[in-house]
Amino acid sequence: MKMSLKSYQEIMKNSMLEEDPNGNSELEQTFTSTKKSPRWGPQHKGAQELAKLYGPGKRLQEIICVYTCITLMIIDLILILKHIHFERLSVACMSAICGIITADFGSGLVHWAADTWGSVELPVIGKNFLRPFREHHLDPTSITRHDFIETNGDNFMVSIPILGFLAYSFNTKSPQDIQQDFGWISYLFLCSIFVAMTNQIHKWSHTYWGLPRWVLFLQQYHIVLPRKHHRIHHVAPHETYFCITTGWLNWPLEKIRFWPTLEAVIEYSTGCKARDDDLKWAKKMT
Ligand SMILES: [Zn+2]
Ligand SMILES: [Zn+2]
């Protein structure tokens, strides 16, 4: 199946060898034929500089967000199970699928915005929220070395207001109103769960060893982002396939040229150049 406008050979040639994150086969080339060293990985000067910017303040924010979000997920799940009625099940399922699609689109939009615009030098958001995106392009497998807190802290933070709103609604609405809004509640719950899980799913898409069987099953049947599918994004200059939750929207968005059109409008109206900062970090070679 042709998944994108790039050929399979182009993707394999221009993205990092993730089955070989230490670049052994590329290093082999260094000793035998050319003087070329791997273009990606932990040895990249820019990646090392970016990794050092991860500090204790950021870590604390992530810990608070992860624990708050998990607490809210459990509370909301208990309330949903308490109120679910069999006759509302089909509405709940349809709404949940719409919630997952919304989460996939949201992941694409945030990922695209963070990859394409802004700079690590920007106050507050630069170091705290844009830095991981820059690091990820230079050292894609660094995500596999991040623990649960570092991987999920920021996405869990985004889900907190939605899950908090749901918990508040359950406690203030009458049982009749809850039944009437059950489709809407299922939509928001699944959307926030998938938003929260996005970077964990993304981490799995970069993991080539030791994945549990059920994760491999979800990837194989494209219920979550498959590894081969995400590799299309990791071809420089990282300008397509931004959706990283399920990846269901990547192909249709590519077909309608959604991202280049959006970029052209922004470049025209602001004068900013897409991926300027990302390119600057990519050039920081040893
Ligand atoms: Zn990216
Ligand atoms: Zn990635």
TrEMBL record:
Sequence intervals crossing the membrane = 60-81
Quick one: a GO cellular component term? membrane
Q: Where is region (Disordered) located?
A: 18-43
Write out the biased-composition intervals (Polar residues).
22-35
Which UniProt keywords are given for this protein, alphabetically ordered? Membrane, Transmembrane, Transmembrane helix
One Pfam match = Lipid_desat
Give the superkingdom in one word.
Eukaryota
| Localization | Membrane
Q: What is the membrane topology noted in the UniProt record heading this document? A: Multi-pass membrane protein
GO BP annotations, alphabetical order: fatty acid metabolic process
Q: Name one GO molecular function term.
A: oxidoreductase activity
Give the Lipid desaturase domain ranges: 100-277
What protein family is recorded?
Belongs to the fatty acid desaturase CarF family.
Record's protein name:
Transmembrane protein 189
Q: Which organism is it from?
A: Ceratitis capitata (Mediterranean fruit fly)
